[in-house]
Amino acid sequence: MSEHDEVVELAQRVLIGEMPETLRKVLASGEPTWTTEQLKEDFFLDGFFAPLVAVRRKSDGQRGTLMFSHQPRLYFRWEET
To answer: What is d(CA 1, CA 23) in angstroms, rounded to the nearest whole number?
Structure first.
């Protein structure tokens, strides 16, 4: 495994490890969240790289990312790219 791959894997583990607290903060703040069905209504899915998904917003074609949690399966933290 290359050094780059190790860094990416470590970043993934950190983000996934922080997911319960991140999701709690999102829900407490009232930030928008999407279920899988709502995600399909609002976005085209371009790819997964847990805990992120690359998407395009259907309303205007804007590309971005969302984070997601497994239990419950929610998508959140829209960020344009």
So the answer is: 31
CA dihedral 7, 14, 43, 39 (to 10 degrees): 150
Give the tokens for residue 27. Answer: 């829900």
**Cβ–Cβ < 8 Å for 53, 45:** yes
Q: The domain containing residue 76 runs over which residues?
A: 3-80
Q: Check: CB of residue 55 under 8 Å from CB of residue 43.
A: yes
**Domain count for the chain:** 1
pLDDT, one tens digit per residue, over 2-56 is: 888 898 888 888 888 999 999 999 999 999 999 999 999 999 999 999 899 999 9
